[in-house]
Design brief:
Layout: H1 16-27, E1 33-38, E2 41-47, E3 53-58, E4 74-82, E5 87-90, E6 97-99, H2 105-123, E7 144-148, E8 155-159, E9 168-170, H3 189-200, E10 205-209, H4 215-223, E11 232-236, H5 239-248, E12 253-257, H6 258-270, E13 274-275, H7 279-289, H8 293-301, H9 303-315, H10 322-331, H11 340-356, E14 360-361, H12 363-371, E15 380-385, H13 393-401, E16 403-413, H14 429-437, E17 440-444, E18 446-447, H15 452-458, E19 466-467, E20 475-479, H16 481-487, E21 493-496, H17 500-511, E22 516-519, H18 521-538, H19 543-563, H20 567-584, H21 590-600, E23 601-602, E24 608-612, H22 613-616, E25 621-627, H23 640-654, E26 657-664
Parallel strand pairs: 10-16, 10-17, 11-12, 11-15, 13-14, 15-16, 18-19, 20-26, 21-24, 21-25, 22-23, 22-24, 25-26
Antiparallel strand pairs: 1-2, 2-3, 3-4, 4-5, 4-6, 7-8, 8-9
């Protein structure tokens, strides 16, 4: 193995997202999986098709999601499945290699992986023939083999790694009728107009894409209509989408998220930069320690409030003034607990200190520093933006700063799916982009997801949405709670405007032996924070005392916020209290309640997936059940922007199903 320099100041620190994007480029479409943290670092595996081998990659990325500061190397080796011991085992010393994290590590990693692949193939005897149909195992992502069940003679896809992996998929005979799955091969006139615009126009463009209109496929195909000699960027909504798009995008396109794009700019300007998501917390703690004890206690009690004020000030590209903080507190329903003067003064100081220090950055900084032109930005000739309706003002500024003088933006989004105004997104992002860019607008009005009956329902909210010519009628019915309980199946999605009504039905299915989860591990964490706050204020610890304190705390806060017309905040607290009460059913101790919260909330869709409509945005299922339709719009929504967001939430809910949509009556 070649000797490589290991000077500490040259070692590169990368994020999990950047490493996975590097793997995508290195593997050129070959699937990989993350096994999670093992001995303190993330481990990835790459199945070697048609063999009992896999390649293992230890990434040096620790629990913070960032590569360790110390000079660890990326290690690669080959493993095989040992039948007798029923476990994976290393193939041998010759299969092991490593590379340092000096600049150029992706290229060296590619060479190590190619060598490992060659070793695995040379040592292997091909297993059962894998059909060249593109199917991959839902459990391990290996290829799949077409098999026949002995008891009924029906065919199914079975994992080629059987018996180690027993993943299966249903086999469907090829259909002659046109279907949504072939939309990529039959481009609509609207989609062709987008491609023509990308190839020949010099103007900025905003593609208004309805739910299920093939927006991502259209955008990726649009990349193929850009010049290979131009600098082309694609900014995806999150790292999962970015990783998938990097597999599909042409080689000349740079795919990133907002944060990875911004962080790359900072590192290019500053060199070695630390990432600490708790940057504001530590700075605020130091500020408080220099204040009188009484003021420091107020700062501690309102730490989250102050940090949120600073975060939203950055997101909205505003100056840290009292007027700004008053506006943000009112607009985003932030309660200053009668300590506004001290909180605003401290927030201004925290803003100034955090923006003066670029040696450590948090996720807000990754956007704010390049958006504020504190560091130069990587420039593109054409910049594609995904989910443009969810941009905040700082992200929009970052996009503008990322263009060459003659560069142009092609943004894709749906203003009627803007539902993150509560979290800081600009609820008028699409109209503002069109106005500021003087952009041409192009429609994608055909949904390839929804049946005709669902489209007719959605048209009451968004008249321009159209069903595909070959769309089926679909099922649209109102059913009882009993019919829902009997009819829900694995793979179904259950939606509600709020989380509390999801809890009872989810646990009802679990008690029947059906796997069910509620999407959103962060929701579980927020419930624990609220429980801790109620316990601390009332100085209680038992379950019964905690629930009583929680109810009292919730009623007091909701009443106060309602009087102040801060309805979104009141609604959030009310939903969290009701969710905790629902979860406590059947619990006799706090530990049982905490265990329930830990197990029911997940970031992975499994079994029957329960979700708030917000969390379901971007997801779809053949069968969708909607609980408590009367909560859309939410009764506490009053401001015009809140009412528009509520209408958008209803539209999102109505457009998740590909076949059957049921409204469940509230008994």
């Amino acid at each position: 193995m070649d000797r490589e320099q290991t000077e500490g100041d040259m070692i590169e620190q990368f994020t999990k997202e950047e490493f996975e994007a590097g793997l995508v480029g290195v593997l050129n479409g070959t699937p990989f999986s993350c096994l999670g943290l093992q001995q303190g670092e993330l481990v990835y595996t790459v199945p070697v098709a048609d063999t009992n081998k896999r390649i293992v990659v230890r990434s040096t990325i620790d629990s913070t999601g960032i590569a360790a500061e110390r000079a660890d190397s990326i290690r690669v080796w080959v493993e095989y499945w040992h039948k007798k011991s029923d476990r994976w085992a290393a193939l041998g010393k010759d299969s092991k290699s490593w590379t340092t994290r000096l600049p150029g590590w992706p290229e060296r990693l590619r060479d190590r992986l190619r060598a490992a692949w060659a070793i695995a193939m040379a040592d292997s005897k091909p297993k059962a023939r894998v059909e060249s149909n593109g199917e991959s195992c839902p459990k391990c992502e290996a290829g799949m083999v077409l098999r026949t069940r002995g008891y009924d003679g029906n065919q199914f896809w079975g994992c080629s790694m059987f018996p180690k992996c027993k993943g299966t998929k249903n086999y469907e005979e090829p259909r002659e009728e046109p279907a949504a799955e072939i939309k990529k091969l039959i481009w609509s006139d609207n989609q062709k107009a987008v491609f023509e615009f990308v190839a020949n126009s010099k103007r900025h463009g905003v593609v208004k894409a309805v739910a299920g209109s093939g927006k991502t496929s259209t955008a990726v195909e649009g990349l193929n209509h850009t010049s290979p000699d131009s600098m082309v960027g694609y900014v995806a909504f999150n790292k999962r989408i970015a990783t998938e798009l990097a597999r599909r995008a042409p080689s000349h396109a740079h795919v990133s998220t907002n944060h990875s794009l911004g962080f790359g700019n900072i590192r290019a300007a500053q060199g070695k930069v630390k990432v600490n998501s708790r940057k504001l917390y530590f700075l605020l703690r130091d500020i408080g320690e220099n204040l009188p004890t009484a003021e420091n206690n107020v700062i501690k009690e309102n730490s989250r409030v102050i940090q949120k004020l600073v975060s939203l000030t950055k997101a909205n590209m505003m100056e840290p003034t009292t007027e700004t903080f008053e506006y943000i507190a009112d607009r985003w329903n932030i309660d200053t607990n009668g300590e506004g003067e001290l909180i605003y003064r401290t927030a201004a100081q925290l803003f100034k200190q955090s923006t003066a220090d670029m040696s450590v950055v948090d996720f807000d900084d990754m956007i704010w520093f390049p958006a504020s032109e504190k560091v130069p930005c990587k420039k593109f000739d054409v910049l594609f933006i995904d989910e443009a309706q969810d941009l905040n003002k700082a992200q929009a500024s970052l996009m503008m700063n990322s263009l060459n003088p003659d560069g142009r933006i092609v943004a894709f989004g749906d203003e009627f799916q803007s539902v993150y105004g509560f979290a800081g997104a600009d609820s008028d992002s699409i109209p503002n982009l069109i106005k500021s860019l003087d952009a041409e607008t192009l429609p994608l009005s055909i949904t390839y997801r929804c049946p005709k009956s669902h489209v007719a329902l959605a048209q009451s909210l968004v008249p321009q949405i159209e069903a595909a010519p070959w769309a089926k009628e679909g099922t649209l019915e109102t059913v009882s709670q009993h019919q829902f309980a009997q009819g829900a199946r694995t793979g179904d999605m259950v939606l509600c405007r709020c989380n509390a009504p999801l809890v009872g039905p989810a646990f009802s299915l679990i008690r029947r032996g059906t796997k069910a989860v509620i999407l959103g591990r962060d929701i579980g964490k927020s419930l624990m924070v609220l429980i801790s706050k109620a316990q601390k204020k009332a100085k209680v610890h038992s379950l019964s005392d905690t629930l009583a304190a929680l109810i009292e705390h919730g009623e007091r806060e909701v009443s106060k916020l309602t009087r102040m017309k801060k309805h979104s905040r009141a609604q959030s607290i009310e939903d969290r209290v009701e969710t905790i009460i629902a979860l406590s059913d059947g619990c006799s101790t706090m530990s049982q309640l905490e265990e329930k919260i830990e197990t029911i909330f997940s970031d992975e869709a499994e079994g029957v997936t329960f979700s708030s409509v917000h969390k379901a945005k971007g997801l779809e299922a053949n069968t969708v059940w909607i609980l408590r339709d009367d909560l859309m719009p939410h009764p506490k929504a009053e401001a015009p922007w809140e009412l528009q967001q509520e209408a958008n939430i209803r539209y999102v809910a109505y457009t998740r199903s590909k076949s059957r949509l049921f409204f469940v009556e509230d008994d």
